[in-house]
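Cross-check.
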Amino acid sequence: MVEKEGAILETILFMIIVGIISTIFGKAKRSQGQSTKKPFSANGTEEIRTLFKELTNNEPAETSPIKTEQKAVLPQNNNRSLEKEYQQVRQESEASRMLVTASRLQSEKVKEQTMKAIQDESETIISKDPDPKTLINGIIWSEILGEPRSKKPYFAKRG
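Predicted model, tokenized:
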């Protein structure tokens, strides 16, 4: 018992030492300039504002010392292309909706057919006038599948 406790304590002590060493090396790595986080740019919000002004006004915003590599270009026939895209997406969604409803109706039909088949099968299995051999088999199966013998003792336990 004492040996197991000693082994557990050694394992915990080893894990603590490994954690301390990894944090020391991690701090040393970050202090060398290999930071995992990107520095926050104060000019980033200004870039976003200028691009937003250009896009909303369709004219260049005030010139600023910040240079952007790419400028957004709005097409002249923007309304027509948007209408085409809208019509295409609408047609695709209607087609997918039709497929979903068709598959749902088909699955309902299959369910109905299986329920009818189960009902027909159960009517053929259970007869209204069974023969003696079927009754004997039923009693045997009820004993086999019924409550186990351990649950039905011959005599009550004295308690």
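The first helix runs from residue 2 to 31. The mean pLDDT is 77. Passed to J.P. for a second look.
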